[in-house]
Amino acid sequence: MSDGPAIVVENLIKQFPGAARPVVDGCSFSVAPGELVVLLGPSGCGKTTLLKMVNRLYEPTAGRIIVNGVDAGQVPVAALRRQIGYVIQQTGLFPHMRIEDNIAVVPRLLRWPRARINDRIDELLALIGLPHDYRKRYPRQLSGGEQQRVGIARALAADPPVMLMDEPFGALDAITRTRLQDELLSLQSKVHKTILFVTHDVDEALRLADKVIVMRAGKLVQFDRPLKLLTRPADEFVTKLLSTGDPLRRLSLIEVGSIAAQLAHSSRGSGTAPCLKTTTDLRTALSLLLEGGEEQLPVVDEGGQIIGTLSFDTLRVAMQQLEQPVVDSHEQGR
Amino acid sequence: MTPTMEPIISSLKLKYLVTHFGDVLLRFREHLVMTLVALLIALLVAFPIGILVSRYRRLEGPIISALNLLYTIPSLALLVLFITIPFIGLGTDNAVVVLVIYAQIILVRNIVVGLKGVDPDVLEAARGMGMGSAQRLLQIELPLALPVIIAGIRIAAVTIIGIGIVAALVNAGGLGRLLFDGVSRNYPDMIVAGALGATALAGLTNVALRLVERRVALSVSGQD
After folding, report:
1. Do A53 and A166 reside in the same domain of the chain?
2. Rounded Cα distance, A332 and B199, in Å
3. Is A140 close to B223, i.e. CB distance below 8 A?
4. Minimal C-alpha gap between B204 and chain A (Å)
5. Angle at CA of residue A242, ends A236 and A246, nearest 5°
6. What is the rounded CA–CA span in Å between residue A186 and residue A149?
7. Which of B128, B140, B220 has its CB closest to that of A81?
8. Are A31 and A167 in a shared domain?
9. Residue A193 in contact with residue A85, Cβ under 8 Å?
10. Would you call A165 helix, strand, or coil by DSSP?
11. What are the chain A neighbours of B221 within 8 Å (beta carbons)?
12. Within this chain, do residues A257 and A224 fall inside the same structural domain, yes or no?
């Protein structure tokens, strides 16, 4: 794999025959290896169409996509798709195949030796946290959440560097969806794939994304880190779509560790009160403050050492700092 | 044969069946072979047509209409018509050609409906994972369409068995022979033997294929 971006999209346009205007209208961006980028926007904004041009389920009308340094349009389409993991909403698992055979589809297409495929199936079931005896089951015998885990395992089977996920959790209930989002994040911390993830769910986007691409009517409106979207929305549309003014939403994107400098210095534990970790987000910290009726809560580092305390004042200061204009680093590359 | 059975056999007009069981079995076998040969050829013809129609939807209207039209031609007319064609003439070949034609609409329609019924999400996943067109057809589409296709085979088989009776009129043999001979010789027991044989053949075929159909339906939906 080259050191350059994993995915480069250049002036991408898709116009379906007979349509009045392009569905995707001149999008350009690039995604670094190992980044999870969410395509966010209302239905019909072109996000799914854009995604499907990456593995050429749709062919671009104009522009090009470079995947791992190679122009996707110049690679045989089957070969391209076998090196891009693909997860869709209703899982698309093959109902007549056992879980092991579903997972083995791409490795078999790539003619892996039987033993290697066998080991890979076990490895993936362990990775997604499903018991070994699920190998012999059929998709229908699994719950929706389990099926979607298998869908992810199947996409990971041949260890593709790039994954495309098209509203993978859209059809799941809220509790299962949140759990799978957590699992995806912990999975991603192990496998470091370059992921393009389509959703219309703002909370999901902000939770999962390293960066978010906000789309509207086929155009890329803003490409930024989640917190930046909330604090510096590009226009009225982004402000509205993400309810950027919502303080709780902002707090949920900041970890306690990132405001360590503002914590009051105290090594005093508070008896029964819960400790905050550096990875706890400020919204959860606020909830815990309100819940326990405490004025402040101790913060501990990974080693369990108390590094300071967090109070309502700390939160207020953190919020105020977000309001202040910061020097734009132009990292969105537009 | 015990003497007490005699009046029952006689009143039920089963005498021919009992006394000429070997002959009836011969006709039964002729009918079965004719049915199997016709069904096999019909499937070989119907699969390419069905797959083609499901790939090119524009063909569906014209081809299904044409096959429907063939189906509406009375079977006797078609059988007699083919006598006039060189290389076909009288006999089993004639019957098989006609039976293959009648089975087409049933088989093609079910193949098309079965392939159309495959979940588009499943197909998109297959495409997105890099399966080629032939791989999708063989590994995904046909297996998932199989219950509907087998239902078509069942209906086609029973239809072929029925029309096969008329085929005796063009010297194709089979159980129709017993029926027509029984009529011309005014021999009711012979007619009964032919009718019972045909009913048994059609009935058993129907039941057997229905069992296969259920088994396959459970298996492809992952519930076995």
Report:
1. yes
2. 77
3. yes
4. 28
5. 100
6. 13
7. B128
8. yes
9. yes
10. strand
11. 95-96, 138, 140
12. no
Any domain includes A254: yes
Chain B: residue nearest A158 by CA? Answer: B129
CA-nearest residue of chain A to B219? A96
**What region, left, alpha or beta, does residue A167 occupy, with left being phi > 0 and alpha being psi -120 to 50 degrees?**
left
Domains and CATH numbers, chain B: 21-220 (1.10.3720.10)
- On chain A, the residues whose CB falls within 8 A of the CB of B126 are 92, 94
Residues A180 and A267 in one domain: no
- pLDDT of residue A188 exceeding 50, the answer is yes
Q: B131 vs A105: CB contact, 8 Å cut-off?
A: yes
What pLDDT, on the 0 to 100 scale, is given for residue A330?
45
The domain that holds A34 is classified in CATH as 3.40.50.300
If you average pLDDT over residues A11-38, what whole number do you get? Answer: 92
What mean pLDDT do residues A41-62 have?
Answer: 92
CA quadruple A140, A144, A146, A150: dihedral, nearest 10:
70
Mean pLDDT of B179-193: 90
Which residue has better confidence, A106 or A278? A106
Nearest CB neighbour to A92, from listed B122, B143, B222 = B122
pLDDT band at B24 (very low <50, low <70, confident <90, very high): confident
pLDDT category at A230 given cuts 50, 70, 90 is: confident
Residue B220 Cα, gap to closest chain A Cα (Å): 4
Residue A271 clears pLDDT 80, i.e. is over it: no
Q: What is the mean pLDDT of chain B?
A: 89
Shared domain check, A255 and A137: no
Task: Answer whether A143 touches B (CB < 8 Å).
Answer: no
Residue A95 contacts B, CB cutoff 8 Å? yes
Collect contacts of A241-246 with beta carbons under 8 A, ≥24 apart. A241/A40, A241/A41, A241/A42, A241/A202, A241/A214, A242/A202, A242/A206, A242/A214, A243/A202
Same domain, A59 and A174: yes
pLDDT tens, B109-144? 999 999 999 999 899 999 999 999 999 999 999 999
Interface confidence, given as ipTM, is 0.79
Q: What is the mean pLDDT of residues B82-107?
A: 86
Q: Which residues span the domain enclosing A58?
A: 7-244
| A17 part of a folded domain | yes
Q: pLDDT tens for residues A118-133? A: 999 999 998 888 999 9
For residues A124 and A268, membership in a common domain is answered with no
Chain B residue whose CA is closest to A80: B130
Of B128, B131, B135, the CB nearest to A57: B128
Helix (H, G, I), strand (E, B) or coil at A199: strand
Whether A53 contacts chain B with CB within 8 A: no
Which of B128, B129, B221 shows the shortest C-beta gap to A95? B221
Residue A262 and residue A186 share a domain: no
